[in-house]
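ok new one. same drill as before - structure tokens go in, u give me an amino acid for every spot. 443 of them this time. try not to just spam alanines like last time pls lmao
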């Protein structure tokens, strides 16, 4: 293999369609792309890399067997370090196999843990990847990551051996609290905002000075609107119901909302947008089996909803980020049972009503999610967030007095920019500054 670009000193790893969308389809890397070499998942090589030369791309397929070993170890760590985040224990409890739980708990015991860790780290050493990094020989490595993928941690191992600084670009607001501890710590972290900085220090023992709240390229389109009016995707007034990935009986809530709108004669529709990566439900769960009059499924969501098999490399499961601003800007308000879409609604200055009740079916119902997930702590303190604690209160959503009463119940002191950095619109420039800082300090 020949170094594909002599002047490229920054290695960027694009291992999933989501990272392609967030970092290649967006301007996130605009300021540094000419200096970069990209390790790219083989299946993504067919895509347009938007101004990036093909010789800058190195195809690579991380072995599935290594992914599997790391997934096992992530659960061992989730149990071992459950005291660091209540979300770790909650994630562990969702395992259906008692046998797996037993072995993971056993592997987390002090002496056994060190042996297991040594074995996993040894068996997952990737010599092919070491060879690729030796040829590229970058000055720094940027790793878009959810914080629980084996490829990132293997690259960190190799980089430490070669004394190359690494920086994880954390993909979502909950990644540092809801998965597991970082199996190998990078030299630097880029996170969404102040909340994630605290999580990085408290849970993952990162040095505060090495954690940078730059935001996320996903929201650049939202925060760069400059007061522009966005055309509505629909020619009627609507409420957006943003579904969640975790199993929850959303249809029962939709049927209740349908009944309220019909009985009260409210002149509005609900746009139902199921989550693209929703997990299997243990209840009736097919929207089209019901004759809704006031609720329609989002036109874009029809492309992925209830497909026979979810394929992360199928573009229909990776909605275009340019669609969301139009959908969010023109809704009257949002109903969302606990997902990142809440933040997106707040960024548009919209009220967000959050069902947080037990659906009586799923362990991962919103009541449990609110109680057990660290990143949801104090969300009721945010202006424009209103918790719906039982189905009877759904009717109150349609009364102005409900939000007024909710505001009076407690001081709404939290700021959305604790979750997402106000520097998000400047992500390309701020990332360039950080890359220069990293490379200059590791000469």
């Amino acid at each position: 293999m020949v170094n594909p670009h002599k002047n490229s000193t920054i290695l960027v790893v694009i291992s999933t369609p989501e990272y392609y969308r967030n970092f290649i389809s967006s301007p996130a890397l605009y300021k540094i792309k000419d200096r970069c070499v990209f390790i790219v998942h083989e299946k993504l090589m067919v895509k347009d890399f938007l101004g990036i030369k093909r010789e800058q791309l190195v195809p690579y397929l991380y072995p599935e067997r290594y992914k599997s070993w790391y997934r096992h170890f992530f659960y061992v760590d989730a149990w071992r370090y459950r005291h660091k985040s209540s979300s770790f224990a909650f994630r562990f409890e969702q395992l259906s196999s008692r046998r797996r739980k037993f072995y993971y708990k056993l592997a987390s015991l002090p002496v056994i843990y060190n042996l297991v860790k040594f074995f996993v780290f040894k068996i997952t050493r990737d010599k092919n990847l070491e060879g690729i990094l030796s040829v590229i020989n970058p000055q720094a490595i940027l790793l878009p990551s959810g914080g629980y993928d084996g490829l990132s941690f293997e690259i960190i191992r190799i980089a430490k051996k070669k004394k190359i600084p690494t920086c994880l670009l954390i993909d979502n607001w909950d990644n540092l609290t809801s998965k597991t501890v970082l199996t190998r710590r990078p030299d630097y972290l880029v996170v969404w905002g102040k909340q994630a900085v605290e999580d990085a220090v408290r849970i993952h023992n990162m040095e505060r000075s090495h954690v940078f709240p730059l935001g996320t390229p996903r929201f650049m389109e939202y925060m760069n609107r400059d007061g522009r009016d966005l055309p509505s995707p629909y020619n009627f007034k609507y409420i957006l119901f943003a579904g969640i990935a975790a199993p929850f009986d959303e249809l029962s809530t939709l049927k209740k909302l349908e009944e309220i709108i019909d009985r009260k004669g409210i002149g509005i529709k609900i746009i139902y947008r199921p989550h693209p990566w929703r997990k299997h439900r243990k209840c009736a769960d097919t929207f089209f089996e019901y004759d809704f009059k006031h609720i329609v499924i989002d036109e874009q969501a029809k492309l992925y909803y209830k497909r026979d098999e979810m394929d992360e490399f199928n573009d229909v499961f990776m909605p275009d980020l340019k669609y969301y601003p139009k959908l969010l800007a023109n809704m009257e308000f949002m109903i969302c049972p606990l997902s990142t879409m809440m933040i997106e609604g707040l960024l548009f200055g919209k009220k967000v009503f959050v069902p947080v009740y037990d659906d009586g079916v799923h362990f991962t119902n919103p009541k449990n999610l609110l109680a057990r997930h660290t990143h949801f702590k104090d969300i009721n303190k945010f202006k424009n967030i209103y918790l719906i604690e039982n189905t009877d209160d759904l009717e109150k959503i349609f009364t102005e007095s409900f939000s007024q009463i909710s505001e009076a119940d407690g001081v709404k002191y939290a700021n959305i920019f604790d979750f997402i950095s106000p520097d998000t619109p400047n992500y390309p420039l701020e990332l360039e500054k950080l890359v220069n800082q990293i490379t200059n300090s590791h000469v």
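Residues 64-80 form the longest helix (17 residues). and btw The radius of gyration is 23 Å.
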